[in-house]
Structure formats: structure tokens, C-alpha cells
Design a protein that fits this description.
Number of helices: 8
Structural class: alpha/beta
Strand content: 5-15%
Strand order of the largest sheet: 2-1-3-4
Helix content: 40-55%
Shape: globular
Length: 252
């Protein structure tokens, strides 16, 4: 990163960390709501340790690191919220993502060194859909936190994307569709990147299926086979698929 990019990243990281602490203090009842949502969904028991999760992997990034992607997942799950982790995409989905890039060295991406990983909201739930239960049972204050956190993350992520000039991958698009959980994030991101002076950044936004349960890989394989694009470069296929899904989600 250039000196200017590095300063922007450090400022973003510090602001994000402070915002997470602010959200934690705002709603101390959040952990109990998360536990109740997991119980209602018959999720196997696990320790609830971090209700709103800052990604500590950001603290490991150095100025000399080459950041090639910003990857946006959904929200921190069971592994991510453990106090010993507090890192994004370290569960099964993260291992699949890490393995995918390792198996495709032509992309030139080390998932743990060349990627900044963020989420659409830092509010934890065992499964993403449980955020709906948490919002409903927590009342207006909790629903507002989940909403506001999406808006904040979308705006700050858009600005970071512009500053670093990297590709931005949104993974997990089902909840980005109309009337779904992450519509606020989708619309705020689109608005932030619609300005004339950041159109180049918008061209580098791609949307994909989530890494979990190999959906990302399966979707890409089906796309390549259906279009008989086996001989095309992998990066070109990824970009074409990512733009196709972007049009489905954003209508652009």
C-alpha cells in the first residue's frame, strides 16, 4: 500500500474497532438474544463469547502487504465470535475459501495475506438467518442496531474500496435480494458507489455465491460448463460470473 492508502486503512481499522466497542456497550442484552435465537433454531450448544465481532486479522496487515481483494461475507458465526479467534471466515467456509485460492495459484491470491475480509454486519449469529429472530425478539433497539451496522459497514467498506483500488467481492448473495436481510447493506453500498468520481471502483464490484458448502465453487463450475468456457482463463470466468450476479442483485 502507498503511504496514503496505509493511513486510510489504519484510520478505517481504528474507527471500526471503536465502533464495535460502542455497539457492544449499547445493547448488553444482545448475547442472551443470540443464545435464544440459536436455541429456537435447535443449534447445538456453543459458548457465546463476542456479540459484536471486530476482525482482529486487520491488525496483522502490514503496509508492505499486497492487498488484492476485499471480500465481504455475511456476519460472524460460531467460530468467528470465539474470543480466541475474533477473526472472519475462519470456520468451514473460510477453510474452503483458503483452499480454493491455494488450488488455483494462477489467481495469485493468498487468502490470508492478500485479502481484507469484512462482513455485512459484525453482529454475531450461529446462522445468518437467525439475525431475523434476534431483531424480532429484541425489539426496535436491536433491529435498529442490525440495520445501522449494515449501513455503517457498507459506507465505510465502499470508501475503503475506493481508497485501495482493489476488487470488491460480495459473497453470499441470497440475503442481498429484495426484501431480504441485507437489503440495507446492498442499497447503501450502491448509493455510496454511484457518484461519478467513483465509477471506476464500481466496475470492480463482483457478486458470488457463498464459500460455505462449496456453493461458490459449484456455481462457478456450472457457469463454466454451461457456457463451454473451460478454455477461458479462470480470472475471466470469475469476473464474468461476478458481473452476472451483480446485475441480478443490483440491477445494473
Amino acid at each position: 500500500m502507498t503511504a496514503q492508502q496505509w493511513k486510510y486503512f489504519c484510520d478505517f481499522k481504528d474507527e471500526f474497532k471503536n465502533k464495535v466497542e460502542e455497539w457492544k456497550k449499547l445493547l448488553p442484552q444482545l448475547t442472551e438474544l443470540q443464545r435464544e435465537a440459536a436455541r429456537l433454531a435447535k443449534t447445538p450448544e456453543y459458548p457465546f463469547e463476542t456479540p459484536v465481532v471486530y476482525n482482529r486479522a486487520l491488525d496483522d496487515v502490514k503496509q508492505e502487504d499486497e492487498i488484492k481483494l476485499i471480500v465481504i461475507g455475511d456476519n460472524p458465526g460460531k467460530d468467528e465470535q470465539r474470543a480466541s479467534n475474533n477473526r472472519y471466515l475462519v470456520g468451514q467456509a473460510g477453510k474452503i475459501a483458503e483452499g480454493y485460492f491455494r488450488k488455483n495459484p494462477e489467481l495469485g491470491v493468498d487468502f490470508r495475506r492478500n485479502v481484507i475480509i469484512l462482513n455485512k454486519t459484525p453482529v454475531h449469529s450461529a446462522k445468518t438467518v437467525q439475525l431475523n429472530t434476534i431483531a424480532k425478539r429484541g425489539g426496535p433497539e436491536v433491529a435498529k442496531l442490525i440495520y445501522d451496522s449494515q449501513i455503517w459497514m457498507a459506507k465505510k467498506t465502499a470508501a475503503l474500496h475506493v481508497a485501495l483500488g482493489t476488487e470488491l467481492w460480495l459473497v453470499g448473495y441470497s440475503e442481498l435480494k429484495d426484501k431480504k436481510l441485507f437489503c440495507p447493506y446492498r442499497d447503501a453500498l450502491r448509493k455510496a458507489l454511484e457518484a461519478d468520481d467513483v465509477q471506476q471502483a464500481w466496475k470492480k464490484v463482483y457478486v458470488f455465491q457463498h464459500f460455505s458448502m462449496n456453493r461458490f465453487t459449484i456455481d462457478l463450475g456450472v457457469f463454466i460448463k454451461a457456457g463451454k468456457k473451460e478454455k477461458a482463463p479462470l480470472e475471466a470466468n470469475l469476473h464474468e460470473l461476478g458481473l452476472l450476479h451483480r446485475k441480478e442483485i443490483f440491477g445494473l
